[in-house]
Amino acid sequence: MNRVDEILALIRHVPPFPKVAERVMTLLKDPDVTAHQLAEVIQYDQAITANVLKICNAAYFGIPRKVNSLDEGLVVIGHDILKDIIIASSSARFYQGKVGAGYGLEQGDMWRHSVATGIMAKLLVRHIKDVDQGSAFTAALLHDIGKRFLSSFVADDFAKIVEKVSRENCSFVEAEQAFLGIDHAALGGMILEKWEFDQQLIDAVREHHNATALERPPLTALVALSNSLVISLGIGVGEDGLASELRGDGLKRFGITMEMLQICMADLLTELDRAQELLSI
Amino acid sequence: MKVIVGISDMKVSGNVKETLITYSLGSCIGVLIWDPVAKVGGLLHYMLPDSRLDKDRAQKKPFMFADTGIPALFKECYSLGAVKGRLVVKVVGGSQILDPTGLFSIGKRNYLILKKLFDKNNITIAAEDIGGSVNRTVSLEIGTGRVLLKVSGRGEFEL
Known about the structure:
Chain A is mostly helical.
């Protein structure tokens, strides 16, 4: 079996994305859905249930009394926050433990990077129209899912990959592609495909390292930009460093200035402070 | 004992047992200053060049910006007994992602404003490791002034 086949064979063993997430998202499309209807579905996923209760009881919401039941919790939090909790709880299970070691990432780094990119994506929705916050958060949270599975292969060829990056000043994904025959963005796209996500989310994950991503559909542009800014801030960044390419001239299309991006970077820090509960999911 | 400096954060110390460390500098810049006589040092990790972007935020978080963070770093060290003429100043960070159009240049701007401030105030940089597309972690031992730098793809070495 050659290298690429070996990597692709891995996808068959990737556990499914929690079904509860999909069912709740469908339910939430109906604005009249009741807390009880939602609870009936959510209760079957212990992690999501625990996280809904944990986040309801976090100081952030300032709810004066303790929320003990899922029904009660779902009345207290709004649907947008519920969507974030569901997606975050469903994704977090793939980022737990010592994942990303092949990229020189410490435990928790990959999750921190993913949450930061998710929050940045939500902040950037103000400048990139035609993208809803839910899709932005989901695609950004999952953009590096391919790293989770490519990490051990990167570890095998680490010295060669790093040497190519520094000698040729190329991007890390270019070196992944050269030595492994596939890169983590492409692999991530395939995983989202297996999980039956919408095509626009699959594309956004697959193309998040495409240098011309800002010329692509809005969600793809948004995820690539969010990732670039979070990488620039060094949040959850490993040995791949800032060796990621994105052509800045694509910003013109959205009327985004450097000043706007700097404000988003500053806002991200404040939001990250407030998102401690999300990080501890 | 390790004292961690976050993003848009600063720590100063006169405790010879302490090591100030900041993880993962990308386009941000880490400024390390140390007085070998007073054994006093400080580490600033700023994120953006110019506080005129948002004056209110700069008041609440002066270490976010070069023009408010750098003066604060020096002042805090002076208050612990450091003397300007003796300070050893080292600077690291200011990377950027690969962008042939040169628009994503916060790292470069972060460095340029520091140079301007230092020139105006006659401050010489003893050592620096700036730019590229790398990620850096840097620490300063207050007792010895030793600065250890870890750069993605280049390993760990003394600066």
